[in-house]
Prior knowledge:
There is one protein chain. This protein is α/β, with parallel strands linked by helices. The strands form four sheets. Strands 4, 5, 6, 7, 8, 9, 10, 11, 12, 13, 14 and 15 form a twelve-stranded mixed β-sheet that branches. The protein contains twelve helices and 21 strands. The protein has three domains: 26-121, no CATH class; 123-256, 3-Layer(aba) Sandwich (Rossmann fold); 328-416, GMP Synthetase, Chain A, domain 3 (2-Layer Sandwich). The chain starts with a helix and ends with a strand. Helix 1 packs across helix 2 (27-41) and helix 11 crosses helix 12 (376-389). Zinc ion binds at residues 257, 259, 261, 263, 309, 311, 313, 317. Zinc ion is lined by residues 257, 259, 261, 263, 309, 311, 313, 317.
Amino acid sequence: MKMPFKLKVIVALFKLARQRQRFERNPQAHQQRMWRTFGQTTLSKSPLYKDIAHRSIDAFPVQGKEEFNRDFDRINTRGIRYNHALQVADEAESSRDFTPTIDGVTVGLSSGTSGNRGIFLVSEEERASWVAMVLQRILGFSLRKRKVAFFLRANSKLYTSVQSRLIQFAFFDLLIPLEHHLTRLNDLQPTIVVGQPSLLMMLVEAQEQGTLHIAPQKIISVAEVLSDEDKAALKVCFQVPVQQVYQCNEGMFGQTCSQGNFHLNEDGLLIEKEWLDATRFQPIITDMRRKVQPVIRYKMNDILHATECTCGSKMIAVSQIEGRTDDVLHFPGGKRVFPDFIRRTVIGAHPAISNYQIIQEGSDQLSIYVEPIDQWESAKNALGRLFEDQNIQGVSFLKLTDKRHILGTKFRRIHAQRS
Ligand SMILES: [Zn+2]
């Protein structure tokens, strides 16, 4: 007999709680045991990995998005072809029908910023486990009915799975301008709002202008870099702290803890760190909870800041996600500047600066957008001083009169364009 979905979620909740407990008791022993089981039950079914399924993780190749897509057909354990999955996902997206499946496996399309689109495959068990993760680590339990406003580019069966008698899920299409959502938002009065920071900041603006009046108890930031300024502005506006969720291709990688840091879910993930400097690292992630499409040594493009946390968890603590490695600014002579320096410099240039975007469009040219625009010179001068300090010469500055942001895509505040 097929187990109903809700029961699967409950089973997954118990499993998750037990895994977390075991990890916190003895991280290494837990991960080794889980890795062995994962090799036997999952990797042994993957054409790409079956011959090395019994080996330690070092035997597996590190992959980026490109290799992950290239090897799609051989990685997944259900014999699903990339082209077929892409076709199914495309058809679903163009008809705005968000339930594409192949043999019971949900097919999703990742909203990649680069041309190469990622496809993810999730079985019903994995969906249940995802829901359990969201309930246990992000939304938390409550016996009161909660309404979640979720801003997404495309809805997915994965997200609506969270729906239950106690959680009402409302999907807001990111491709539709915010002003068309305001009435519905005001009527809904969401308890929880989930969206990317650029969208959340539009909510702040609307709330301040009086066109929006909501009082959420939780704000959850996803997808883009959440800067300290935006975090503070959101807190002032809605009077609740902002939580961050780190996820990709529907893997739930980490979330904010009680101390305001976030932890990577090492009770199901193996994290290898590629250090960029003393505190910054690029994570290489192995997700031992993915069964249909194992994610093995997947190198993320994100720059994470390692920190120590006092909350008691032994899982890796991260103070912030700084941005993507491809948004590190590179200058002649091998000089590089991390996005966080640029951010601090622009914000520190003048207290009135409320929004900005910096795009590197060539090794010696920066385009700068600043709000209010009359502070453009201060931002430019501050950046000039930063480069002088770093011995970076000959950078020219261009004035942008508007942000570059395509509706429905991720907003990249500090962006290095490589041509
Ligand atoms: Zn913590």
